[in-house]
Amino acid sequence: MHSDPKAVVQTMIDAWDHRDWKKVTDLFTDNGVLHSMMIEPIVGKEAIGKRIDLLGAGIGTITLHIHNMAVTGNTVFIERTDEFVFNGHAGKVPVVGVLEVEGNKIKSWREYYDRAELVAAMGLTQDFHQPSAPH
Predict the structure, then answer these.
(1) What CATH code is assigned to 5-121?
(2) Which end of the chain is less enclosed by CB atoms within 10 A, N or C?
């Protein structure tokens, strides 16, 4: 099934804004990739779902304020500001996302933002991400 990549990404944005974590997860392909560029990628729908559920548990509200969206082929670029309340702490952070769409699913989502700024905006004193053990 082929869809309009921009419409697929807008569905993802709406799922985030409504905190519909199951829908967020379901919008990824089975072997999808979620990659905040400053840490290792999360690969596979199951692993992505676990990360989304972990973050989602602390999010009281979230709005992805879209400033610009551009499409080239099956790739959608979004410049945005994420505004949220995480464990009672209000914050916001500027982000650029690059999403590759396959059919009606997200194949790859790469995020570019200042990680330290995000952690501080969440009201955390240390990063919630636990790196994988070296092989």
Answers:
(1) 3.10.450.50
(2) C
